[in-house]
């Protein structure tokens, strides 16, 4: 019966004319291609927009305007006794150094013949960061032999002056700003013309300086945040890689397949999808409230990020172990290797590229994670560098993504630039980690 | 031709995979310095039985083996037996050539090394060379022992696997369809090799090809649906089978 319908005679059709069905099929395919292209273009456009916005806002953070003046470090003011005793020298406060800088600046302005009639001496000092005297004091205390010499002191210009030379602040906006006056900016422009003010690359300063208060965005840097992130990554790597790999090997190669291991497997998959803030609550309850570990400490951050990264690493490692052909295990067992020997001599080396890739991607995710860190107090303002590990792991620090969050919260527009700069630094770290993952994978796979 | 001493002896072997009764009451004597072929249609239990002989079935969680298998009078399923030492004495070659992704030298040296069979590098070199010679591979690879084993041709890879298996000086060599992934020329080489190995080892080979069984073996066992139907001299099995099922199989009516 069906034969009759299948072979019913049909009018001969030309290959040169497409029938309606063929046209519909072709149209559907064309539409599908168009959807794909549109989706990819949208994605690329979003990426380009993000990068332009971040780079446009943030690249300025790596440049900084400095006031460069020769300062004579007068022994009579800084070290009356002349003993170079750090304790005695520390009695001279930043106020004393401030006066030293002020007189040096005024002398230099006079020497260059600049007209300062429109601005009083306080406003002249206002061109420089409030951090400048403390900066000079730290320099002198670190190296008392400077006393008696005349040094060229690079003081960070205040954020408004910095913004003026980067185009963020104009004479019109300064007129409405209580922090700076147009006259000050005109003086700054005149100083720049004679070379007393210069905007130059400040990469190391931005990367190494600690955070600074709301009023001093010009000296705020990422030093503590980078160090805190590095400490946490160290903890995550040292804990999650061995634990994750050992757990995966046990589950994949040794554990009996029964409902308990099924249950564990399902739960690991679920844990990988748990919102990271939940891990923050867990860490707050367990590590801080119950175990009494200090708040804001990299050790707690590292532990919570370890918990968060473990499922990712376990899933990646199990997938890598599964991908090793069973014939390799048979071959090893067949010549009399024990289970352990077959795993460690043959299976694990073959699974290594996959394991490393999974680990690095897990670390990259942990590096960019901020939500759980907010809950364990890493969002605090930390100006002091933690010391070297292991003590430093218990001392307060911040982390890169949290620093971004903190800076975007502050009112001074100069912090927008800093936050974007911090995002660039974070993105560069992530790119480096991904590149390392690719290189490692290539390298280990090339072996055979 | 073959000495009539028994090397391995299976008595009343039953194998279950979960609820599936895969092998039913098998009794076989494997003779020393003899090639024994297991033939039968797919799923008849011949590979299962082969894997019982060096306890590779231990790696299958659901497998249960009953009965007794003796190697030179010792029960290999005794609690005191470590499968690791058993597998050094009963080597195995698999269906698909599966060299380790390491150098040719490392492939062969791995077994002696983990079992501590050699005292120094010179002895190990000697064992590697002897094993490769016995596997008729030495002349082809002696200049590139550091090259990866996976870079060899299929037939060479399978001979490398044989060399790897005999490097631990086993007493019995199990081969699970060793030629099914090879072309006819490589098959002929491996078959020739099996015939040479008979002078030193007891060889058990599982094969789908009746012609191969007839060519290389002195003894043949025919398995069907988990039963050992018939076991005897190869010539007798192929020319004068006692069981009608054996006759149906070798004449091509079943399987």
Quick tags:
heterodimer, A: 448 residues, mainly alpha, MetI-like fold, 2 domains, three-stranded antiparallel beta sheet, 20 helices, 5% strand, B: alpha/beta, Rossmann fold, six-stranded mixed beta sheet, globular
Characterise the protein shown here:
- The complex is a heterodimer of chains A (448) and B (255).
- Chain A has helices at 2-6, 20-58, 75-78, 86-89, 94-111, 121-125, 132-142, 159-166, 171-175, 182-193, 203-208, 223-254, 259-272, 276-290, 298-323, 326-334, 339-367, 371-375, 400-409, 414-445, and strands at 63-72, 150-156, 197-201.
- With 448 residues, chain A is mostly helical.
- Chain A has 2 domains: 62-201, no CATH class; 223-444, MetI-like fold (Orthogonal Bundle), CATH 1.10.3720.10.
- In chain A, strands 2-1-3 form a 3-stranded antiparallel sheet.
- The model of chain A has no long low-confidence stretch (mean pLDDT 88).
- With 255 residues, chain B is of the alpha/beta class.
- Chain B has one domain (2-250): P-loop containing nucleotide triphosphate hydrolases (Rossmann fold, 3-Layer(aba) Sandwich).
- Chain B contains 10 helices and 10 strands.
- In chain B, helix 4 packs across helix 6.
- The two termini of chain B are 31 Å apart.
- In chain B, strand 1 (6-17) and strand 2 (20-31) form a beta hairpin.
- In chain B, the strands form 2 sheets. Chain B has a 6-stranded mixed sheet with strand order 6-7-8-3-9-10, sandwiched between helices. Chain B has a 4-stranded antiparallel sheet with strand order 2-1-4-5, with helices on one face.
- Helix content of chain B is 36%, strand content 26%.
- At the A-B interface, helix 16 and helix 17 of A face helix 2, strand 6, helix 3 and helix 6 of B.
């Amino acid at each position: 019966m069906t034969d009759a319908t299948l072979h019913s005679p049909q009018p001969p059709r030309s290959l040169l004319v497409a029938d309606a069905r063929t046209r519909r099929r072709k149209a559907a395919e064309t539409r599908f291609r168009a959807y794909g292209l549109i989706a990819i273009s949208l994605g690329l456009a979003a990426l380009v927009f993000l990068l332009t916005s971040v780079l446009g806002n943030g690249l300025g953070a790596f440049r900084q305007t400095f006031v460069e003046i020769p300062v004579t470090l007068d022994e009579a003011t800084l070290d009356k006794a002349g003993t170079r005793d750090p304790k005695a020298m520390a009695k001279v406060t930043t106020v004393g150094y401030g006066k030293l800088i002020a007189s040096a600046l005024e002398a230099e302005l006079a020497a260059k013949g600049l007209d300062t009639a429109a601005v009083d001496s306080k406003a002249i000092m206002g061109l420089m960061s409030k951090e400048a005297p403390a900066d000079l004091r730290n320099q002198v205390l670190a190296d008392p032999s400077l006393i008696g010499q005349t040094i060229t002191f690079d003081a960070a210009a205040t954020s408004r002056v910095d913004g003026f030379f980067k185009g963020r602040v104009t004479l019109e906006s300064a007129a409405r700003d209580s922090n700076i006056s147009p006259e000050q900016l005109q003086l700054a422009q005149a100083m720049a013309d004679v070379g007393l003010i210069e905007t130059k690359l400040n990469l190391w300063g931005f990367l190494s300086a600690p955070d600074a208060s709301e009023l001093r965005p010009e000296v705020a840097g990422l030093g503590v945040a980078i160090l805190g992130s590095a400490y946490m990554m160290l903890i995550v790597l040292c804990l999650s890689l061995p634990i994750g790999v050992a757990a995966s090997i046990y589950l994949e190669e040794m554990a009996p397949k029964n409902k308990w291991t099924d249950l564990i497997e399902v739960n690991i998959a679920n844990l990988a999808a748990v919102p990271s803030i939940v891990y923050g609550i867990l860490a707050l309850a367990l590590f801080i409230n119950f175990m009494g570990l200090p708040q804001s400490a990299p050790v707690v951050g590292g532990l919570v990020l370890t918990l968060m990264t473990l499922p990712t690493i376990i899933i990646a490692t199990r997938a890598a172990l599964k991908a090793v052909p069973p014939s390799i295990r048979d071959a090893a067992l067949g010549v009399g290797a024990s289970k352990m020997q077959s795993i460690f001599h043959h299976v694990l080396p073959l699974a290594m590229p996959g394991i490393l890739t999974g680990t690095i991607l897990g670390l990259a995710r942990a590096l960019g994670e901020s939500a759980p860190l907010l809950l364990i107090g890493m969002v605090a303002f930390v100006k002091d560098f933690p010391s070297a590990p292991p003590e430093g792991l218990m001392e307060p620090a911040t982390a890169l993504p949290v620093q971004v969050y903190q800076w975007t919260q502050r009112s001074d527009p100069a912090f927008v630039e800093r936050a974007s700069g911090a995002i660039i630094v974070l993105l560069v770290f992530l790119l480096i980690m991904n590149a390392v993952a690719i290189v490692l994978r290539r390298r280990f796979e090339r072996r055979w | 031709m073959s000495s009539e001493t028994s090397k391995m002896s299976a008595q009343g072997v039953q194998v279950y995979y979960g609820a599936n009764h895969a092998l039913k009451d098998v009794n076989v004597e494997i003779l020393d310095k003899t090639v024994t072929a297991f033939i039968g249609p797919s799923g008849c239990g011949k590979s299962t039985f082969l894997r019982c002989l060096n306890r590779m079935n231990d790696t299958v969680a659901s497998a249960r083996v009953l009965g007794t298998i003796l190697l030179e009078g010792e029960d290999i399923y005794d609690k005191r037996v470590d499968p690791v030492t058993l597998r050094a004495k009963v080597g195995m070659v698999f269906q698909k050539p599966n060299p380790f992704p390491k150098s040719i030298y490392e492939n062969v040296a791995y077994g002696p090394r983990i079992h501590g069979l050699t005292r120094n590098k010179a002895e190990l070199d000697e064992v590697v060379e002897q094993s490769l010679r016995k596997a008729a591979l030495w002349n082809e690879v002696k200049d590139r022992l550091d090259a990866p084993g996976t870079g060899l041709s299929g037939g060479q890879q399978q001979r490398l696997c044989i060399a790897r298996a005999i490097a631990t000086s086993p007493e019995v060599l199990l081969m699970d369809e060793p030629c099914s992934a090879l072309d006819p020329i490589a098959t002929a080489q491996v078959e020739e090799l099996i015939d040479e190995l008979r002078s030193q080892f007891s060889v058990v080979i599982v094969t789908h090809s009746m012609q191969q069984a007839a060519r290389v073996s002195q003894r043949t066992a025919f398995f069907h649906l988990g039963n050992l139907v018939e076991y005897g001299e190869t010539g007798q099995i192929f020319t004068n089978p006692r069981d009608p099922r054996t006759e149906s199989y070798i004449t091509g009516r079943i399987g």
